[in-house]
Amino acid sequence: MHTIRPYRINTLFLSDLHLGSSSCHAESINQLLCSIDCKTIYLVGDIVDFWAIKRRGVGLVESHVEVIKTLLIKARQGTKIHYVTGNHDDGLRSLLKAYPFEHGLTNINLCNQCNFISKSGKKYLVLHGDQFDNQLKWDMLSKSMVALNIALMMSYQH
């Protein structure tokens, strides 16, 4: 039987896997992870959906646990993993405040944000983005109020 060798890449970015939620496609995620060999993986927020787990009152199903096992195996084999927290895994943010993981686990860096440096040397900030949710809500409310004000002013002119 011929085994397929993993596709080699430098960096993989994954976000919003929502392990623990019923909408997660864990089998496909695990298939992807098993089909690649990469130096670095950035898990960019909402990887484990603690909100869904709490809401459902059930732990992770086996296929979701398999994704975590695959990631841990990759880390043990030398893949550097940056786990950037998101709003659905905000329990990890509390953990980071209490116990900063300055040195991380073996090849796993748990953080709220980190940097990515491209082959060309450009530096990128990697974060989930939910930090801006409140600002976006206020911006949308502000824009809605301006639009409403304009509409009211125009209706009074006629």
TrEMBL record:
<dbReference type="GO" id="GO:0008758">
    <property type="term" value="F:UDP-2,3-diacylglucosamine hydrolase activity"/>
</dbReference>
<dbReference type="InterPro" id="IPR004843">
    <property type="entry name" value="Calcineurin-like_PHP"/>
</dbReference>
<dbReference type="GO" id="GO:0016020">
    <property type="term" value="C:membrane"/>
</dbReference>
<keyword id="KW-0472">Membrane</keyword>
<keyword id="KW-0997">Cell inner membrane</keyword>
<protein>
    <submittedName>
        <fullName>Calcineurin-like phosphoesterase family protein</fullName>
    </submittedName>
</protein>
<feature type="domain" description="Calcineurin-like phosphoesterase">
    <location>
        <begin position="11"/>
        <end position="141"/>
    </location>
</feature>
<keyword id="KW-0464">Manganese</keyword>
<dbReference type="InterPro" id="IPR043461">
    <property type="entry name" value="LpxH-like"/>
</dbReference>
<dbReference type="Pfam" id="PF00149">
    <property type="entry name" value="Metallophos"/>
</dbReference>
<keyword id="KW-1003">Cell membrane</keyword>
<dbReference type="InterPro" id="IPR029052">
    <property type="entry name" value="Metallo-depent_PP-like"/>
</dbReference>
<dbReference type="GO" id="GO:0009245">
    <property type="term" value="P:lipid A biosynthetic process"/>
</dbReference>
<keyword id="KW-0479">Metal-binding</keyword>
<dbReference type="GO" id="GO:0046872">
    <property type="term" value="F:metal ion binding"/>
</dbReference>
